[in-house]
């Protein structure tokens, strides 16, 4: 039985089984004369289940002698009525899950929007292929909601058709097939196939074009690809896979050379690996930092999962590299002190290879790389979170965010791409221009950065300090060697090409542009301002036509009489009543004919036409509430807008589910069945989103912290 001791699903007792042990394993029945009300015992059992789920405790946690003794101190009678054994807690999980699932299902049916499904795949620590399925929607009050619908096994290969079959099974289990809006996933080609098969199965009437329009690309995955292209070249995925292959083969020196060829970023990575690989070197680095009286934390960077385990390509995140560079620049003095001391070691085997030592030019280059990557990093952090009432993290930010990043990359490219050396003065003059607006070609002024963005901006600097700021930046550029500038230009080009590749793919669905047009704080004017060239005028027409076609096909009531929509709230001709004019005279035949034609023209204006005539954009942070307030005026267009604003920008909630599942699947719980893990993680999501209560207790409104 020794092989059974590795998991917590079965733990043999220290001695032989007794009759009392067997009795405790059976469901405990409440005596008929119990003084404890059933509602109270049910509440305690739900709270016990919540404790296990929320804190990732093993099901046998209440077998602990000290905890049992502690609980008995409060109410011996109540304690004796509750089945505390491991098997009882596992059964209680089933009961609670089933009862709470009904409540979540009811909230899904009461959603005022379509339910948008985000999904992602993962390999669990106990080697199961797992797919996370998450639903996004607006509730009755217009609040954005997210529910984990499944964390289930994905049988067979990761082919699109197989994944589609799993997704179909999930939505059928929840009975929401008729409520599905879009699919949100990363940019893998098998997900294109998955979307096609999925929508064909749940809604056979959809054409191939209709199915493509409902496949939404995860913004986080796009940003990840762009960041990797900037850091590792055109094929960053292949580079990282080769590094992993070398590590798996224990070819450490080859891996160091592999990273060293990537320039200062690769050598910085080798330095940090060198320090962290030895407790003695780590301790020495801490000592040097302490001696320098540095108040910063010692942690060099937040270590990515790629350095801890074999990974799927879509699990790799470039963010940790940005954080590594940013923290290394803050700790530059400590690193240089450590390296100087290390190079003086008598034993050559204890020294960092001389090829990995960073020189002053390398540090200058790292400063520029960090500056260029900062907007990309902040876009990632902004959109992966959960904004309040549509503020961020939703689909309207994808197109605007990509436009912003394209602008940034093009400006940086112009900054580093002047062989005559005149870019410094030109850039300085451009940045000190009072309007501080930068646009390509004949385009008009650029809108201000999105409200809430945290990117460092010179706009926040007092006018009298900007010259000194730009002078320092210009001096940095002048001090860079030409080969460093060439390195930066190549990195910018790689990132721009990758970003532009996916920017052009946004045209496959009208919903990306529709999210901008239907945002009253952006509107069609935002795109008109951005897309002003002859070629871009075609993009603008396509965006407007795509929105109108989608609305006409799926939202507008074509059976209604012309002028029926919104006519109660928008009278054809506003009339002013003049009481002093006496009785109203009777209209002549000509006036009746003229007014009838005028009223008909006004009534025949569609909701979309009336929306385009509004004085937009307006300063607004909450597009959802804006449309909620206008549901009577725009009954069908508001429904489309609300459906669109329920679409998440990323499938980040699926990755959160994977991260939380890893906390549950510790090395002592690897025998847990996937079905049990699914129930634990779904319940954890529901209680932390306040979708359900356990023991009558909401999770967040009692001062507890949220999932983030």
TrEMBL record:
SUPFAM superfamilies per record: Ribonuclease H-like
Pfam families per record: Dimer_Tnp_hAT (PF05699)
Compartmental location: Nucleus
Any one cellular-component term (Gene Ontology): nucleus
Keywords linked to the UniProt accession: Metal-binding, Nucleus, Zinc, Zinc-finger
Protein name per UniProt: Transposase-like protein
GO function terms (MF aspect): protein dimerization activity; zinc ion binding
Domain HAT C-terminal dimerisation: 607-687
Region (Disordered): 1-40, 436-457
